[in-house]
Amino acid sequence: MSESATVFEGEELSGGSTPPSAPGEAKAIAGKSPMKLAMMRLRKDKPTMVSLTVVILVVVAAVLAPLLVKMGVLDPFSYNQNLLDANTIPEGGWSGASGAHPLGVEPGTGRDAMSRFWYGITFSLMIALTAAMLSVIIGAVVGIIAGFSGGWVDAILSRFTDLTLSFPSTLMLLALSSLGLKLVQQVTGLPNGPLAQGIYCTVVLAIFGWTSTARVVRGQVLSIKQREFVEAAVVLGASKPRIYFKEILPNLWAPLLVLVTLMMPAYISAEAALSYLQVSVKPPTPTLGNVLADSLKYAQVDPFYFFMPAILIATIVISFNLLGDGLRDALDPKGDR
């Protein structure tokens, strides 16, 4: 090739005025992995980053709460009747807020409100996270088997999913609460306390909550099983469990992660509703749900105590929802928004 035909990097083919690059100044084009691209999109999404910050703070608070209770920094159980008036309402405004009790005290008992809110986050997140993980595990297994197998296996599992969806989960929780709690106690050997009540609530939420995951995963698997690496594994004689969990499952981590973040707020709200129905963890052990349910009795005489857990639950639920939406948009930018 003649010297006049040589095209330098940065020189326009049409003979534009861009000067050729000096030797050694050519810049290598750096490729970006899908994860890096997703992180770039995520960092540009300001609402999602704010929500992520709130979620991290909530998780850290939930982890630290039991340690702070053991150290005596938080005290969600001690009564302070001297801080209540003759009607067992906190003396002074803002639920009797003071330096020793920044968010006041609980009407009727005088227990420190901030300690109960903070400690309640731990139990509520533990129930919600465990139920979400169980739901995703059950739904992923059912969805992978149904989507890959097809035929009568897919038909049976899909109808079983529809059957589970038809059950009224709240009514089932209420109807089976006594029997289910006794069954949990027999299986685990635990007494009738907050741990057994939390396990029962978690298991029932997971049993009725896996169906949406199964449907999403089944739809993803119907596409993934047509790809070359899955067909190669089938031709090479790989076992079905290997195809399910070594070939297909690693390609589902993005939708499963999004599903977990979207299930968490749903289960936090569900735990609050179940506490109002006296099915979840019962006082004196605090959860966000039973603290809010207890505050309803004092909504008119002590509105500050009523609004604080409500605002806390709303903040956590909205943050998880926005985080889930942001992760979905970052990991699947071509999907419907």
SSE arrangement:
Elements: H1 34-44, H2 46-71, H3 113-149, H4 151-166, H5 169-188, H6 194-209, H7 211-224, H8 228-235, H9 240-248, H10 253-276, H11 288-295, H12 303-331
Question: Which terms summarize this structure?
Answer:
337 residues; 12 helices
Overall description:
With 337 residues, the protein is mostly helical. The chain has a single domain, classed as MetI-like (MetI-like fold, Orthogonal Bundle). It has 12 helices and no strands. Helix 5 crosses helix 6 and helix 8 runs antiparallel to helix 9. The two termini are 51 Å apart.
Short characterization:
With 337 residues, the chain is mostly helical. The chain has helices at residues 34-44, 46-71, 113-149, 151-166, 169-188, 194-209, 211-224, 228-235, 240-248, 253-276, 288-295, 303-331.
| SSE pattern | HHHHHHHHHHHH
Secondary-structure-derived class: mainly alpha
Number of helices: 12
| Gross geometry | globular
Report the uncertain regions: 1-18
* Main sheet overview: none
Compute the number of strand runs. Answer: 0
Q: What is the CATH C-level name?
A: Mainly Alpha
Transmembrane segments: 49-69, 117-148, 160-183, 195-217, 248-268, 304-324
InterPro entries: BP-dependent_transpt_permease, MetI-like, MetI-like_sf, OppC_N
Pfam families: BPD_transp_1, OppC_N
Protein name: Peptide ABC transporter permease
